[in-house]
Write a structure and sequence with these properties.
Blueprint lengths: L16 E6 L2 E6 L9 E7 L4 E9 L9 E7 L13 H16 L7 H7 L28 H15 L6 H14 L13 H11 L25 H9 L4 H13 L5 H20 L2 H8 L4 H7 L2 H6 L23 H13 L4 H10 L4 H16 L6 H4 L5 H15 L1
Helix pairs in contact: 1-14, 1-16, 3-4, 3-16, 6-7, 6-8, 7-8, 8-9, 8-12, 12-13, 12-14, 13-14
This protein binds magnesium ion.
The site of magnesium ion has 6 residues, from helix 3 and helix 14.
Length: about 400
């Protein structure tokens, strides 16, 4: 069950300082205060304007207990400058998603063996002197993001325009606007539409099907095109403090408008749980234990035996140092993309290396890096995204503005 208060139960490294803001108040957790032992956390709860509501200390391995935090009457401005940091997981996750997408676009569909030989570490574009032949020829400039970000933006725009309501008919209309009218694109044309999504959009606009009946239900409909745009729906569940049943219901529908097979629902649900635990713990290994290992029996109750078997590798030591990453195939299959993203976050310690690892898996490089970037961006925050990548990202201000509006209407 997802609960807002769980977000304060952080297990932090001794030198980290974190603020996680959700709703109107936030909990600041500091461990570098001179009076704090490694087992202790200094904790504040505060309003967005910096007014401190309560403060005190608690042990790092358990939540605060009643009476431990005392009422306060001061602001963060009264503390030393730079004493605490604010993070905004919606903005940072969306920027991380877009950066990963843009980084992977030129390399899309290159084999893993080719990508690994290239050792690309900089954001490239088809307007650069590429050391390989891109599927996009010379059409896509550096910093341009594709369908993954565009459909995420389209979803968020719909939710903002509906004042925080999720209306799947309206979201599908926004998807149509993206593909038919070049809205929500980083360039003046749309690109990257996948087959599963094309069929779903055709059912919606030509077959007059309700949005929730447009997603393909067959096994072959298990592309990664729902997982790549799941970030805002997952954040919505977290911000709304939905329980497991409510979360699965929303995630299943959000995926199902384009991908209605149960394997897709489970992948998007696992992604949501892992994202939440990464935000809560700031510790990918612990997040994996909480979201995956400890919940295996729970997943078994929610999903069929066949679906659990399809995701067997998820539970088979993915976080371990001895895990052979070549067990994860290079494809556009949603299970492979989920495993690629989780592996890339689990086996790295910063945003940059998470993206480089995801891209190194080859094939669907932009989608894999977009999914990875949404988690890593939200967890490591904007300061963790390399400035040299952000500086060339297209429409960064629009993305930031949309994220702020989205946070405001779902908070
Ligand atoms: Mg794409």
């Amino acid at each position: 069950m997802i609960r807002k208060n769980d977000l304060s139960q952080a297990f932090l490294k001794p030198d980290t300082r974190v603020l996680f803001q959700i709703g109107d108040t936030a909990e600041y957790i500091m461990t570098n205060d001179s009076g704090v032992t490694p087992a202790q956390l200094r904790v504040f709860t505060a309003c967005p304007d910096g007014k401190i509501l309560s403060e005190g200390y608690r042990l790092a391995d358990r939540p605060s207990v009643p009476g431990e935090l005392k009422p306060a009457d001061r602001t963060f401005a009264d503390l030393a400058p730079g004493f605490c940091e604010r993070t905004d997981p919606v903005t940072d996750g969306l920027l991380g998603l877009a950066v990963g997408d843009a980084f992977g676009v030129p390399l899309e569909f290159l084999p893993r063996s080719t990508v690994q030989k290239l050792h690309i570490t900089e954001m490239l574009g088809c307007d650069c002197d590429l050391p390989f032949t891109s599927r996009w020829g010379d059409r896509i400039p550096r910093g341009a993001w594709s369908d993954d970000t565009a459909m995420t933006v389209a979803s968020m725009t719909s939710i903002v325009e509906k004042n925080g309501e999720i209306d799947f008919e309206d979201i599908m209309k926004h998807f149509i606007l993206w593909w038919n009218a070049n809205r929500y694109s980083s360039l003046d044309f749309s690109f990257g539409l996948g087959n599963n999504i094309k069929h779903a959009l055709d059912r919606f606009q030509y077959g007059m099907q309700p949005a929730l009946q447009c997603g393909g239900k067959d096994f072959r409909d298990n592309g990664n095109g729902a997982l790549m745009r799941m970030f805002p729906f997952s954040i919505y569940c977290i911000f709304k403090e939905m329980d497991d049943g409510e979360t699965l219901d929303l995630i299943r529908k959000a995926a199902g408008i384009t991908h209605a097979n149960e394997i897709n629902a489970m992948c998007c649900y696992v992604y949501t749980q892992f994202l939440f635990e990464c935000l809560r713990t700031k510790n990918p290994a612990l997040a994996y234990r909480c979201a995956v290992t400890d919940r295996k029996a729970s997943y078994g109750e929610l999903f069929s035996v066949e679906t659990m078997e399809a995701l067997a590798l998820l539970f088979d030591g993915l976080a371990g140092s001895s895990f052979d990453k070549d067990r994860i195939r290079e494809s556009g299959y949603v299970v492979d993309s989920l495993l690629t993203a989780l592996y890339s976050v689990l086996h790295t310690e910063n945003f940059e290396n998470a993206i480089l690892t995801a891209v190194g898996f080859g094939y669907d490089t932009d989608t894999n890096a977009a999914i990875t970037g949404s988690i890593a961006g939200a967890m490591y925050a904007r300061k963790g995204i390399p400035a040299r990548w952000l500086s060339v990202l297209r429409k960064q201000e629009e993305l930031t503005g949309l994220a702020k509006a989205f946070s405001a209407c779902i908070g």
